[in-house]
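Page 37, top half.
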Amino acid sequence: MQTVKEYIISVFGGILYATGINVMISPCGLYSGTLAGIAQTINTIIQDVLHIAVPNGFNLTGTLLALMNFPLLLLSAK
């Protein structure tokens, strides 16, 4: 029962973090720290500097963040 509670708290924390980034940080043109900030910076470079079109409604920052977190997940599993 304790692990179910920990999973629920973890998912809630992730949703709260994502909401904070999408509602407060990104619309103001700010960048967060850690890998999320790096993903936001790469997204800005791809869209604004290189002028590569991204389909409307596609979250490139989230995709980049997932791709950067996946190797860390594999490293932590060992």
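Page 37, bottom half:
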Amino acid sequence: MSETLKLANQLKRVKGQIGGIEKMLSEQRNCEEVLTQLAAAMSSLKSVAREVLSGEAVECGRDEKTQERYAMLLKRFF
């Protein structure tokens, strides 16, 4: 499976999680349950971000500008 397809599948799962959270909110579900699902969705998105950044890591040693961009991305997301 290609990396792009893997990331697309992960994002589809996140989309499903978000849809579930929206439904929970409309049903006025328990706050703790909603927050648990929000934390799970956030964790999934961070996982996708780490995968994207790991692709950038391959490039980070090539030149100073790329190293600076990679360092900025790391600070921004983690």
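Margin note: The mean pLDDT is 86.
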